[in-house]
Specification:
The structure is a single chain. Helices cover 28% and strands 21% of the residues. It is of the alpha+beta class and 316 residues long. The protein has an 8-stranded mixed beta sheet. The longest helix has 26 residues. The model has no long low-confidence stretch (mean pLDDT 92).
Length: 316
């Protein structure tokens, strides 16, 4: 299947003060269709400077090339809802990458490396751009689902659990090409930009579609919270990363998240009001996030023991 199957959405009509109603309508229709089919699309003209994205990738590459003892100086502290700082997957993990996680600028949990010196300010600038795009996409998804105006914005008003990850995937070996095992994300909406190496793939209709890197474009995928709220009307995208032989891959992923104290369950608009049974039981978000983090920090020996949103699925 061709990579052109992944739709690209031009967001410029939403930044245009003259109000391009036709362009907005076209974008909303494309997003609604993509979310209903497989939860994946790309965006362009999104307001995040391409130079800034490239600079972030370059600075993260510099950091990841430092010796382990230098990187480990930025290991996560304790008490954070997420392991902010530098981490590497355990050797027995099927995921072969290392990563630097940051929570919102100003968070007391952040552990930034001292070098390269510009890395912190560039990540914080990228973070602020992606929060704005996240808010815009959340409002579009709100409309696509036919929810009352600002429903998702009011439900998800606290941005303190958003986070960003700079990722380095090691070159593939003769025996092993997995970078990240196929999965769905546990948050609300995820944004990814990657270097020219590629490797990100999304599953649609049982086939894996490569997301070909395109400068300036950001990949968007719907995640588990939206799938549960919509009672599976919108799909949490199944995706993976396949590593290349002889080449490292660098990328950033921004997770537009939900505060841990929020209750998540299928909304009445998609269940009782239309005579549908809920496909998931309700849960406190931080409980699910803790299970997801544990997947990473303590990978189960059996793949079937990895926790997904199916953990809360109601058998029919």
């Amino acid at each position: 299947m061709a990579s052109s199957s992944i739709p690209t959405v031009d967001l410029s009509p939403f930044f245009n003060e003259e109000g391009d109603e036709h362009g907005r309508r076209k974008a909303i229709e494309t997003i609604a269709r993509a979310c209903a089919e497989y939860g994946f699309f790309q965006i362009m003209n999104h307001g995040t400077p391409t130079d800034l994205m490239n600079k972030a990738l370059q600075l993260s590459k510099t950091f990841f090339q430092y010796p382990p003892e230098e990187k480990l100086k930025s290991s996560p502290g304790s008490g954070a809802p997420l392991p902010a700082g530098y981490s590497k997957h355990p050797d027995h993990s099927p995921d072969k990458n290392e990563y630097l996680v940051a929570m919102p600028p100003g968070s007391s949990f952040n552990v930034y490396p001292e070098n390269p010196p510009e890395l912190r300010s560039v990540i914080e600038e990228v973070f602020s751009h992606l929060v704005r795009i996240g808010s815009l996409l959340e409002s579009i998804i709100n409309d696509c689902l036919g929810l009352p105006p600002n429903f998702l914005k009011e439900y998800n008003h606290d941005r303190s659990w958003d986070f960003i990850a700079a990722l380095h995937y090691f070159p593939a070996t003769e025996r092993e090409t997995n970078g990240i095992t196929e999965h769905e994300d546990g948050n609300c909406i995820t944004f990814v930009f990657q270097d020219e190496v590629g490797g990100l793939e999304v599953r649609k209709d049982g086939e894996w579609i490569p997301v070909v890197p395109a400068e300036g474009k950001i990949v968007v995928n719907i995640a588990d919270v939206i799938q549960v709220l919509s009672n599976k009307k919108f799909k949490s995208a199944t995706h993976r990363v396949v590593r290349s032989k002889g080449r490292s891959r660098y990328s950033f992923a921004f997770f537009y998240n939900l505060h841990g104290d929020k209750w998540v369950e299928p909304l009445s608009q998609f269940t009782t009001e239309i005579g549908e049974s809920p496909k998931y039981r309700g849960f406190l978000y931080k409980e699910y996030q803790q299970l997801r983090v544990r997947n990473k920090t303590h990978p189960p020996s059996r793949p079937e023991d990895v926790i997904h949103i199916t953990h809360y699925a109601i058998e029919t």
